[in-house]
Amino acid sequence: MNYIYDILVNFCDKPYDFYDWNLDDTIEHIRKIPLFHVSSIVLKELKECRIVIREEMMEKLNNKTEIFAKKGIELIPYACLFSDGMEVLAIEFNHQGVSTFKSKLLLEEEEEVLEVVSRVPESEMSYTMIEKEEIEVFKTRKEVEFLEEFEQELLRLKKENVQKLQYLYYECFNKKEENVSKIIKEIKKSLKDHFNETYPQLYQFFKLTSVKK
């Protein structure tokens, strides 16, 4: 089996690019982790879907990944790197073989892995796809998280603070509107059709008004 040594991973529910890693994320320092060379089709499915691997694959991975910890070396029961020679994806699996957490690598470390994988024969992967996971390709992690929080905030304002909602509408469109359903509909449409223009405005609005709560 081929291994990669001394890299950082950020196992999350989605594989975030290194520039989207947050300060409060749990970054793990990998001492050793298995590496598999797979096709681009397989890597795409691994990245976009929740999968379950077969028992024989779990046996190969069992306690093969080591991380540096405060009290010495600890083990991740089931984890590995996959690469098609163009990009690298780290995946952690649970004890049922289901992919639970994923991570991309730091740019320099990914380049080092790509050099290694070019000399590794391609492996056959046996797995079953459970479901496709939503990945926002054209939005940063910060933007995606804001949109999720924004949906909740709109519902809260609809129930608790209609005036703030009306003021938000005025800030966005420079006109007044009393109909709450229309306000929410047009703000969402603006986010969908003109995200780059609408997002900064909404972000600043909620950042400022949240201080005044």
Structure notes:
With 213 residues, the protein is α+β, with helices and mostly antiparallel strands. It has 2 domains: 2-132, no CATH class; 141-211, no CATH class. Helices cover 42% and strands 26% of the residues. The strands form 2 sheets. Strands 1, 2, 4, 5, 6, 7 and 8 form a 7-stranded mixed β-sheet that branches. It has a two-stranded antiparallel ribbon with strand order 3-9. Helix 5 packs across helix 6 and helix 6 packs across helix 7 (195-211). The longest helix has 20 residues, at 141-160. The mean pLDDT is 89.
Key traits:
2 domains, single chain, elongated, two-stranded antiparallel ribbon, 26% strand, seven-stranded mixed beta sheet, 213 residues, alpha+beta
Q: Gist?
A:
This protein is α+β, with helices and mostly antiparallel strands. The strands form 2 sheets. Strands 1, 2, 4, 5, 6, 7 and 8 form a 7-stranded mixed beta sheet that branches. The chain has a two-stranded antiparallel sheet with strand order 3-9. 42% of the residues lie in helices and 26% in strands.
Q: What number of structural domains do the residues give?
A: 2
Number of strands: 9
Average pLDDT number: 89
Alpha plus pi helix count: 7
State the distance separating the first and last CA atoms: 56 Å
Return residue spans where pLDDT drops below 50 for at least 5 consecutive residues: none
Radius of gyration: 22 Å
Look at the helices and sheets and give the structural class.
alpha+beta
Envelope shape: elongated
Percent range for β-strand residues: 25-35%
- The SSE order reads EEHEHEEEEEHEHHHH
Biggest pleated-sheet summary:
7 strands, mixed
Helix content: 40-55%
